[in-house]
Amino acid sequence: MAENKNKNQINIELSEEVAEGIYSNLAIITHSQSEFIIDFVKLMPGVQKAKVKSRIILTPEHAKRLYKALVDNLKKYESVHGPIKDAPSHENMPPFTLGGPTAEA
After folding, report:
1. Is the pLDDT assigned to residue 102 strictly greater than 70?
2. Residue 4 covered by a domain
3. Residue 71 located in a structural domain
4. What's the rounded Cα separation, in Å, for the pair 80 and 87?
5. Residues 15-35: what's their mean pLDDT?
6. pTM for the whole thing?
7. CA distance linking residue 57 with residue 63, whole number of Å
């Protein structure tokens, strides 16, 4: 039975560089029929130019799995730490244009 368990196991390598992470305080999401693109941006107060720090490209199916995993993890987090306050809206910010339908998170 242990052999079956090992066949389904995936070994994931995490390099030191990637393990450090990249800070982002804005996510811009665009999509086409075949993919979702999430650009993670670092936006600094008073600076008119923001940099995309990382871009992740997902299939629609994987984007939906990510959405479900985020919902599940947010519920678990809030059950331990209490409700997360909604971030202030970005109504006073200029629009970001990277092409395609856009949503912010």
Report:
1. no
2. no
3. yes
4. 20
5. 95
6. 0.71
7. 9
CB proximity list for 5: less than 8 A, separation 6 or greater: none
Domain count, the chain: 1
Q: What is the pLDDT of residues 35-49, one digit of tens each?
A: 999 999 998 888 888
Half-sphere exposure of 36 (CA within 13 A, CB side): 17
| Residue (of 15, 27, 6) closest to 90 by Cα position | 27
pLDDT category at 96 given cuts 50, 70, 90 is low
CA angle 76, 78, 81 (to 5 degrees): 110
Query: Are 36 and 60 within 8 A, CB to CB?
Result: yes
Q: How many other CB atoms sit within 10 Å of the CB of residue 15?
A: 7
Task: Return the exposure string of 21-54: e unless at least 16 CB atoms fall within 10 Å of the residue's CB, then b.
Answer: eeebebebbbbeeeebbbbbbeeeeeeeebeeee
Under DSSP, the state recorded for 94 is: P
Range of the domain at 95: 15-104
